[in-house]
Write a structure and sequence with these properties.
By secondary structure, the chain is of the alpha/beta class. It contains 5 helices and 9 strands, in the order E-H-E-E-H-E-E-E-E-H-E-E-H-H. The chain has one domain. The protein is globular, with a radius of gyration of 20 Å. The chain starts with a strand and ends in a 15-residue tail after the last helix.
């Protein structure tokens, strides 16, 4: 598989194991880099009323959906501020393998709707969703092409599993047709991780 993106994720190194096949191209440009704190804040902002002690989100990779449960811990900067998450305990609640793809991009991260507040989540925090139909995702809050290397997600999903699923999904989606990507010189620089504004400034003459 061939990945086009200036950002790197934790499964990318498998290209050195399986090699680069441009007939299977993952155009990941425009990816969103998530830290643990950014992820916690993002899913907690989807709570409608009071801070919930347990929240859920989906990571879709190809035709596989990973349902994560996060036990949230909040604190206030002062007594007048709204509680903000500072820590989360992650667990993998379920994995759906119904051979269906629900969102636009090859990989998507989507919060699961919850607006029942602290009391409800405490009572039901250990429940497991047994099917995709039991959950309700927030379709207007999708993160396209998330970069999750700096979150807790890699401790639950083997990078090899992501690589293989992406390869199979993209191969099936494009029917193994070679994808010709035309890059300008600037695109090539950015895709290799350089900053187009600062990396190639004119040298300072002494």
């Amino acid at each position: 598989m061939y990945i086009i993106d200036k950002n790197k994720d934790y499964y990318d190194y498998y290209k050195s194991i399986y090699g680069i096949d441009k007939t299977i191209t993952y155009d990941r440009r425009g990816s969103t880099v998530l830290s643990e704190q950014k992820l916690l804040k993002f899913i907690s902002n989807c709570v409608v009323d009071s801070p919930s002690s347990v929240l859920y989100f989906i990571l879709e990779v190809g035709t596989i959906q990973y349902l994560f449960r996060v036990k949230m811990y909040y604190k206030r900067a002062d007594k007048y501020s709204f509680p903000e998450p500072y820590k989360g305990e992650f667990s993998l609640n379920n994995v759906f393998k119904d051979h269906k793809h629900y969102f636009k991009k090859e990989i998507s991260l989507v919060p699961v709707k919850t607006n029942r507040g602290y009391w409800w989540s405490k009572q039901h925090e250990n429940e497991v969703a047994k099917s995709w139909g039991e959950i309700e995702v927030l379709k207007d809050r999708v993160v396209d092409n998330p970069i999750v290397a700096d979150t807790s997600i890699p401790s639950f999903i083997d990078p090899k599993d992501i690589w293989i699923e992406l390869t199979n999904f993209i191969s099936s989606k494009y029917n193994d047709k070679t994808v010709d990507i035309v890059n300008t010189d600037i695109d090539k620089v950015v895709n290799h991780g350089f900053d187009k504004k600062s990396s190639f400034r004119n040298p300072i003459k002494l």
